[in-house]
Amino acid sequence: MDDKLVEDISKDSIVRVFHLYKRFGGKCALYDLSFDIKRNEFVYFIGPSGAGKSTLFELLYKKIDASEGQILVDGINYSRLSKKKVPFLRRKIGVVFQDFKLIPTKTVFENVALVLEVSGKKKSYIQKKVRSVLRIIGLESKKDSYPVGLSGGEQQRVAVARAVVGEPQIIFADEPTGSLDSESAETIMDLLKSFHIKGATVIVATHDSGLIEKTGGRIINLKDGRIIM
Amino acid sequence: MFYYLNQTLRDFKNNKFLNTVTVVTICFSVLIISSLLLFVENANNIITSFKDEIRIITYLDKGISETKKDDVRRKIEKLGGVSDVVYISSNKALEILKTQMKNQTYLDDLKENLLPASFEIYLTKKSHNWEGIKKLALKIEKLSAVDEVEYGKSWLEKFSSLISLFRFVSIGMGSVFFMVSIFIIINTIRLSLYSRRKEIEIMRLVGAEDWFIKRPFYYEGVFQGTIGGIIGLMLLFIMFLTFNSNFEADFSSQGFIQINFLSLEVLLEILFCSVFAGWLGCYISVRQFLKK
């Protein structure tokens, strides 16, 4: 991609993707993706299993690298980002993982506090902030519980709390309601919506089109690694 | 700081067995190395105290004249490395013998003093080496009117070389135990890292830098080294007290040999090595793991 295109970043855009390809061996998982997400947008990537949603998200929070093309998040060009700076990028992003990714040996409070600890926040601030986020998601009473003692819905709420506690500008949620009952799913979506209202850009990957009807937002369809218009 | 210490203690609790094995290994390595050091240090002290008492005894021909005696003394004094020459007449020698064997009465029945007159030759500090003593003894032996030269304690020479060999073996064994300890620490930390690989991945995904992940493991290694080192040295001290109380009853009370514990400086050096082993083992392991 030429530099002219990079310079053309709109001030309103927080995520820009240009001609993105991801290959695993000989197999192409993502094929020539280009899209633009504006600040404070609520965007859904929708598509069946195997469409490439999780691969796209892994690229967006830089767990894996693109085979071709470029990703810009909040003006940071991933292809020019050194390995040492990746942790600082991730602190700008909140991620809700499909499999929650909670640390089983840490309590609910410690799991959420980890995000603030890694960025070197003061203990008093961490205490205050984590308590307030746990109150919002309705899990303050379970702050000393371990993930194994929580239901799927509660675990996902903890994952949401961890994603938002650092007050990120962007929240990526990969199938956040995938393994939840409809009531828990609704709670999670309400939480994401409330953070969106507060100013965050929320990007959700899902195969459940029912979610969109309830919450609203822009839809980008993915199929076989391509964007379907 | 609190977070890291808390994390280290938690890791220690979660991997009790592995950590105990590591601490026990370090502890025994420290115990073995420091025992060897304790032995070598005390053996050296004994040799030094014996060396301080080294003298050459020159027995003179029977019936030697006063002039000849003074002549031999002058010649000895002119030889290098001599600090003092004391004459022991045959009567004096008998007196000394009687004092040493005060409970024996058969010496009183002696009609004739068969003991020869002698010179006790004391050496300068510089001459307290085996080669020098040997050469001096040979020179004295060649003087006229000298019957026999004895510089005793030649067993010290053998003992001394044995201690040198022992010291060499100790250094070798110490190095091997040091490496074994590091190897075990590497594997304990590696297993600890492996058991926490998912946690490490999550930490990275939420923005942890490598040092944030590494630090609790470093504390763990240093903690293992410190605890192992302290317990090892405490065990050594207990063993020393037990041994010394038995030994004192047998020897020390008679004023022969005094056994001393390792100096604070040496103890701190051993502890430092133990802590360093913990840190190094951790450093190697974490470096290898986080590179992946």
How many strand units of chain B?
A: 4
Task: Indicate the CATH topology of chain A.
Answer: Rossmann fold
Largest sheet of chain B: 4 strands, antiparallel
Low confidence ranges of chain B? none
Summarize the amount of helix of chain A as a percent range. Answer: 25-40%
* Largest interface, C-beta closer than 8 angstroms, per-chain residues: A-B, 22 and 16 residues
Overall 3D shape of chain A = globular
Strand content of the residues of chain A, in percent?
Answer: 25-35%
Query: Count of DSSP helices of chain A?
Result: 8
Task: Note down, in words, how this protein is organized.
The complex is a heterodimer of chains A (229) and B (292). By secondary structure, chain A is an alpha/beta fold. Chain A is 34% helix and 27% strand. Chain A has one domain (39-64, 81-228): P-loop containing nucleotide triphosphate hydrolases (Rossmann fold, 3-Layer(aba) Sandwich), CATH 3.40.50. In chain A, the strands form 2 sheets. Chain A has a 6-stranded mixed β-sheet, sandwiched between helices. The radius of gyration of chain A is 17 Å and the shape is globular. With 292 residues, chain B is an alpha+beta fold. Chain B folds into 2 domains: 2-50 and 157-291, no CATH class; 55-152, Alpha-Beta Plaits, CATH 3.30.70.3040. Chain B is 71% helix and 8% strand. The model of chain B has no long low-confidence stretch (mean pLDDT 83). Chain A binds chain B through residues 61, 63, 84, 87-91, 95, 97, 101-103, 105, 114-115, 117-119, 123, 162, 166, and chain B through 2-3, 10, 14, 198-199, 201-209, 212.
